[in-house]
Design a protein that fits this description.
With about 500 residues, the chain is of the alpha/beta class. Helix content is about 35%, strand content about 15%. Helix 8 (about 295-300) crosses helix 10 (about 330-350). It is elongated and about 85 Å long. It binds ligand MZP.
Length: about 500
């Protein structure tokens, strides 16, 4: 006979946190939201952590280049979707990695003989106002000087003039040499009041450029996720069909985190995939597995010691109809609580800490807080990011309101990519597990996330916690009755209007 679990399948909205002692020396600003994304071995530090416990869903309508850049700049991680060709996914990863770094390869270059008119066109098309001059016009040619939009007057100078007539030649350019640290390079920029510092190799060829604006920008984003070379961090999703071809390309493109994207990760296919990646790329690569919703699923995924983090959730996503279509899944709170319990037992038994990701179904900021209190190390969200300016879909006006399209990865729309990438629909899709929908546009990712994170930190102060580890240890949760849910909203009053701040805060209810 089938086993029937005695408790009901529960969601986050059925729980509330009980406040605990708030200490006088605590402030919202000092709450640390850093969280591990890789397994933490006994007496070791995690190999990879995020500065805020939020990653974007591996979905076409969510995690493109712009969103991954915007999220990394705020301290989280974008997970570029795998429902696209290997080349285009690797290209997205490359674009995030090259978006901004301390040392950038020069993207717009010219020669000394080029006409001014052509340089002006190059500056206009690229948006770059500083262009290195090299002997062959490439990013690695012999460096001859710099030309900037301050070196000529477009409407006064003869545009047939050669670049050499206007450029600042190498003798007058302040430059650094290969091996210089970023700090030293920024010091040179500061000391000489320059905006751009070319870095040359020993033979005088151009290696890279360092810009003042990147330094200023970094200071404005203190939680920015940067790798050792000061490039933005990015994750990428994998499927269990083509990982042997996909993983090498993603790693070559500089990806920081890999993650299997599946509604059901409790499969031998995924286990084989994780083992293959470990065997071929070693222990350093950060790999996530999932999704699972039970202790049994967790034990399976960690059994070969290959996985770094585990994603929890099935059927809770806002666009997901898996539970309706197939009768499998679990309430997100019940799933997370069971897996957290098993993860903690495993930690006591082995000393190995496996970070957990609560994936999907988070309907508002409060639910993010509850997921973290219950023991998730970070959350993955789709709808939240689909609603922002930076998601890859075009905004659309419907009845005077602005919306963005948002669709599940289990829709025909998402799965059609295979038809265009390899000329065939390799697996016929018999039914859909997701829907195609619209979500309201809420503004820039930075603005929305600022409110969310402020609320998360504020609740943590209510619990007396200054780190996420501290938060889940101290959290005391209670189940709520339907009546107390009613009591939690406004009661017996008439509201004339809701202000913008309140609407933003309630992003979950705007859809
Ligand atoms: P949400 O944040 O929009 O509620 O949920 C996003 C999550 O839903 C994704 O991270 C993924 O786990 C899941 N998802 C994506 N597509 C589908 C589908 O088509 C789905 N069924 O369930």
């Amino acid at each position: 006979m089938a086993t029937i679990i005695s408790d009901t399948s529960r969601t986050f909205s059925e729980y509330l946190l009980i406040p605990r002692l708030t200490r006088k020396n605590q402030s919202i600003e000092s709450v640390d939201l850093r969280s591990p994304l890789s397994v933490v071995e006994p007496n070791e530090l995690p190999r990879f952590s995020v500065n805020i416990p939020i990653v974007s869903a591996c979905m076409q309508s969510v995690s493109g280049t712009s969103l991954s850049i915007a999220l990394a700049r705020q301290g989280g991680l974008g997970m570029v979707f795998c429902s696209q060709s290997i080349e285009s996914q690797a290209e997205m990863v490359r674009q995030v990695k090259s978006h901004k770094a301390g040392f950038v390869t020069s993207a717009s270059n010219t020669t000394a003989d080029t006409r001014l008119e052509e340089v002006i066109r190059l500056m206009r098309e690229s948006g770059h106002s500083t262009v290195p001059v090299t002997d062959d016009g490439t990013a690695t040619g012999k460096f001859l000087g710099l030309i900037t939009d301050q070196d000529f007057w477009e409407f006064e100078d003869d545009l047939d003039n050669k670049v050499c007539k206007h450029m600042t030649s190498i003798e007058d350019v302040i430059f650094g040499v290969d091996g210089i640290s970023l700090r030293e390079a920024n010091n040179l920029l500061h000391r000489h009041k320059k905006d751009c510092l070319p870095i040359l190799d020993a033979a005088g060829n151009l290696s890279s450029l360092v810009f003042k604006k990147d330094y200023v920008d970094h200071r404005r984003h203190p939680l920015e996720m940067l790798d050792d070379s000061k490039r933005l961090c990015v994750g990428a999703a994998l499927n269990t069909h083509d990982y042997k071809e996909r993983v090498p390309e993603l790693i070559a493109a500089g990806v920081d985190v890999l993650c299997f994207d599946s509604s059901d990760g409790f499969t031998e296919y995924q286990m084989e995939g994780i083992a293959w990646i470990r065997a071929n790329f070693g222990p350093e690569v950060v790999i996530g597995g999932g999704n699972i919703v039970s202790a049994e699923g967790f034990d399976f995924l960690i059994s070969e010691l290959g996985v770094d983090f585990v994603k929890v959730g099935m059927g809770g996503g806002s666009i997901c109809i898996t539970r309706e279509q197939k009768g499998v899944g679990r309430g997100q709170a019940s799933a997370l609580l069971e897996v957290v319990h098993r993860r903690d037992e495993y930690f006591s038994e082995t000393g190995r800490y496996i970070p957990l990701c609560s994936d999907g179904g988070l309907a508002n900021d409060t639910q993010i807080v509850i997921a973290l209190a219950m023991g998730a190390d970070f959350v993955m969200m789709g709808r939240y990011f689909a609603m922002t300016d930076e998601s890859p879909t075009p905004k659309t006006s419907i009845n005077g309101q602005m919306y963005k399209p948002y669709w599940g990865e289990g829709t025909h729309r998402a799965q059609n990519w295979q038809r265009y990438s390899d000329g065939m629909s390799s697996r016929k899709m018999m039914f859909e597990e997701g829907v195609d929908a619209y979500v309201p546009l809420v503004g820039s990712l930075a603005e929305v996330l600022e409110t969310t994170l402020y609320k998360v930190r504020s609740t943590m102060v209510n619990i007396g916690a200054n780190s996420l580890a501290n938060f889940r240890e101290s959290a005391v949760l209670t189940r709520v009755s339907e009546q107390s849910v009613v009591e939690a909203g406004t009661t017996n009053v008439f509201q004339f209007s809701r202000n913008r701040e309140f609407e933003e805060a309630e992003w979950g209810n705007t859809g």
